[in-house]
Specification:
The complex is a heterodimer of chains A (304) and B (387). With 304 residues, chain A is mainly α. Chain A has a domain of 212 residues. Chain A contains 11 helices and 4 strands; from the N terminus they run ααααβββααααβααα. The termini of chain A are far apart. Chain B has 387 residues and is α/β, with parallel strands linked by helices. In chain B, 47% of the residues lie in helices and 17% in strands. Chain B contains 14 helices and 14 strands. In chain B, the strands form 3 sheets. In chain B, strands 7-6-8-9-10-13-14 form a 7-stranded mixed β-sheet, with helices on one face. In chain B, helix 8 crosses helix 9. Chain B is elongated. The chains are: A mainly alpha (304), B alpha/beta (387). At the A-B interface, helix 1, strand 3, helix 8 and helix 10 of A face helix 8, helix 9 and helix 10 of B.
């Protein structure tokens, strides 16, 4: 029983990472019908920006703002950097080819992905970097019984879930959210109705990458090890989560991400680690056979 | 005086010309030439440079003591650029220069094609950084030897160390499903089998993780639940660092044993001192911990020349390859490859920097030294076994 609860908390944490990244995928797909291959690299870049902020002047940020203050600065810095970065990528790589159809757009996205990951390698080098130990809170607490959780893990969970709820609220309950959903449904009509398409693009390409950056910094804080290729693995898993939940809608991405994390943990913990990915993708295939539009893709007609 | 000198000079010149004229073959070289094939460029360039420096230091030490068979040693270097194609070219270069003994090379896949060529041309070659079992066990190469151990040396050492030294009963083995880690894990299981059959040990966990991920909390929870006496991890440092860190955070207090790819500066950096202290890691002998008189002499000479110790043990094995060849040449009394190969197989008293230099019929080194190191409270490695 205790092991089960422990594996559930493990799965929830991994799942919240996937969900954060998956939301970025889903938002861009919903509005632009584009699978943004560069999204995994936004995640990596965010992680490296957080790292760069924490190692400036050998821990100046942590010394000045305190342990948690330093983390807040790193997170906000990385999110801001990636919001700008996302808009830049949209301007340079997507907007010029947007009218050319979907295939050139996908190729352009792949190009952006390779550009970003190699850029990171050129700046920070091909080896592993480690978040400085002095900038990471090292506390752990007993959750129940023999189940321990690190402070940073708990913060990760709370912040991710809160942000997901916030984004959900904005997209589903506000007027602006309605505009976003309308654009996703039919861009031409939405534009005719007076919705500013540019501002919607601005929204998805700043918020999506910023969420990726948040997940990236949290990955660094939780696992300390970062490398320029790590976006690929997370990107793939997050993309899987997106498909599982139903690509294009935000609650789907959240549920897909958390479900994927739970499935992984439970299978790895109780059956076999070596067969984990085989099992996870088998589940994906089964879900797609039974519900081709994803778990909750059908119910929600609009996709954002 | 001047006149006498010029007379001598003229005499010498005429004599040598006369000698050269009447001899069809070139004059017998005044030195004994030994080849060194090393990856001076390419992926393993650092290893190649260290090997070159180590061999040169060993050469100076031998020459200072009078060389071998009354002659000085000369090292002829060829670069194999860390890849199999250039390795064959380097081997051909050394063979065409008429060398009978060479030191070659670093990396099993790089060494294999060269070893084939040397063997076909009856040149004794001694590998120093190639550990694949297949090099000696898949086919017999009568002229190939190696001073480094094999990939399964470590697994054999682990089984004995875990059961007999640590007294562990419940053992967990975890690998990463990749070539190297899986091989070590399978061999460890194989060498544990006799202990398991005798009821002295029990394999309570045997599974793989997915390399390249960041969150291993699921396996960690499982290990915590099983709570083995020894948790042996046979893969690379990035995963080892994360696993151990997450295990300690999850409240696991048991013993972690890493294989030889784990204890690296990166491992220490990612995991941090608090996490790594008390963990034990199996490894080849590390240059700084070698304590034979020959090791101390070599390390002192190396330090005097380069102001640091060799960067890896493989470079020291390269120096020992030279020591082994020189000892075999001395024993054989000739540089004839058949006699030298025979001497390599039968010599019993050759002393190297890394211990006695003795070889099996198939060219593997006998009694290859292996160590268990432990991280102390300051996060530094210390020898744990054998003391």
């Amino acid at each position: 029983m205790q092991l089960l609860l422990e594996q559930l908390t493990n799965g929830l944490t991994i799942g919240s990472f996937y969900a954060l990244v998956a939301m970025g995928y889903s938002m861009v797909y919903g509005v632009m019908k584009l699978i943004n291959f560069a999204h995994g690299d936004f995640f990596t870049l965010g992680s490296y920006l957080g790292y760069a902020i924490l190692v400036i002047g050998s821990g100046w940020v942590t010394r000045t703002f305190g342990l948690w203050g330093g983390i807040v600065v790193a997170i906000l810095g990385a999110m801001l950097g990636l919001a700008i970065g996302g808009l830049l990528v949209e301007r340079v790589a997507y907007r010029p080819v947007y009218k050319a159809g979907r295939l050139p757009l996908v190729v352009s996205a792949l190009g952006a992905s390779i550009f970003i990951s190699n850029g990171i390698m050129a700046v920070w080098g091909p080896r592993f970097q480690a978040y400085p130990q002095t900038s990471i809170p090292s506390g752990t607490f007993r959750l129940f019984g023999e189940v321990y959780m690190t402070d940073i893990k708990l913060v990760t969970l709370i912040v991710s879930l809160t942000l997901m709820a916030l984004i959900y609220y904005v997209v589903e309950k506000t007027l602006f959210g309605a505009a976003v959903r309308a654009t996703a449904l039919d861009r031409e009509t939405a534009t005719l109705m007076g919705i500013n398409f540019r501002s919607i693009i601005l929204f998805v390409f700043s918020v999506g990458p910023a969420l990726g950056a948040l997940a990236g910094v949290f990955a660094g804080l939780n696992y300390s090890r970062i490398i320029f290729t790590m976006g690929w693995g997370y990107g793939l898993k997050a993309f899987t989560a997106t498909i599982m939940g139903g690509i294009g809608n935000i609650p789907g991405a959240m549920i897909g991400g958390i479900l994927l994390g739970l499935l992984e943990s439970l299978f790895e913990g109780f059956v076999s680690g070596a067969w984990k990915n085989v099992f996870v993708f088998l589940i994906l295939i089964i879900i797609l056979i039974v519900r081709p539009t994803g778990l909750i893709g059908e119910k929600v007609a609009e996709k954002v | 005086m001047k006149r006498v000198l010029s007379l001598v000079f003229v005499l010498v010149v005429t004599l040598s010309m006369a000698l050269a004229a009447c001899q069809q073959k070139p004059a017998e070289p005044q030195t004994i030439q030994i080849g060194l094939q090393a990856p001076l460029t390419g992926d393993f360039a650092a290893e190649g440079q260290w090997a070159k420096q180590s061999v040169e230091v060993a050469q100076e030490l031998i020459n200072k003591k009078g060389g071998v068979l009354g002659k000085q040693i000369e090292i002829i270097i060829a670069d194999d650029a860390s890849n199999p194609k250039d390795s064959a070219l380097a081997a051909q270069k050394l063979i065409s220069q008429g060398l009978k003994e060479v030191i070659a090379s670093y990396g099993s896949s790089v060494t294999a094609p060269a070893a084939d060529l040397y063997d076909a041309n009856k040149v004794v070659s001694v590998g120093y950084g190639c550990t694949a079992v297949r090099l000696t066990m898949e086919k017999q190469r009568p002229y190939f030897f190696r001073t480094a151990g094999r990939d399964d040396t470590q697994s054999e050492f682990f089984a004995k160390f875990a059961v007999e030294v640590l007294g562990a009963k419940r053992i967990a083995i975890m690998h990463d499903n990749q070539d190297y880690g899986r091989g070590v894990a399978e061999d460890a299981k194989k060498f544990l089998q006799p202990y398991i059959d005798a009821g002295k040990a029990e394999l309570v966990y045997y599974d793989a993780i997915t390399p390249g991920e960041s969150d291993y909390s699921a396996v960690v929870s499982q290990i915590k639940e099983i709570n083995p006496d020894v948790w042996f991890f046979t893969a690379y440092y990035p995963e080892a660092a994360l696993l151990l860190k997450q295990a300690r955070q999850a409240g696991y207090t048991g013993l972690f044993v890493g294989n030889n790819s784990v204890p690296t500066p990166e491992f220490e950096k990612i995991a941090g001192v608090d996490v790594i202290k008390g963990s034990i890691h199996l490894n080849e002998p590390m240059p700084q911990f070698l304590s034979y008189p020959e090791s101390i002499e070599f390390m002192d000479a190396y330090k005097a020349k380069y102001n640091e110790l060799p960067g890896s043990i493989w470079a020291v094995y390269a120096a020992d390859a030279l020591n082994a060849l020189v000892a075999a040449i001395a024993k054989a009394g000739t540089i004839d490859p058949d006699a030298v190969a025979q001497a390599m197989r039968t010599m019993t008293d050759a002393k190297g920097i890394t211990g006695p230099l003795m070889f099996t019929e198939r060219g593997d080194r006998k009694d290859i030294p292996y160590y268990a190191y432990i991280y102390n409270d300051q996060g530094q490695l210390e020898v744990y076994y054998p003391k």
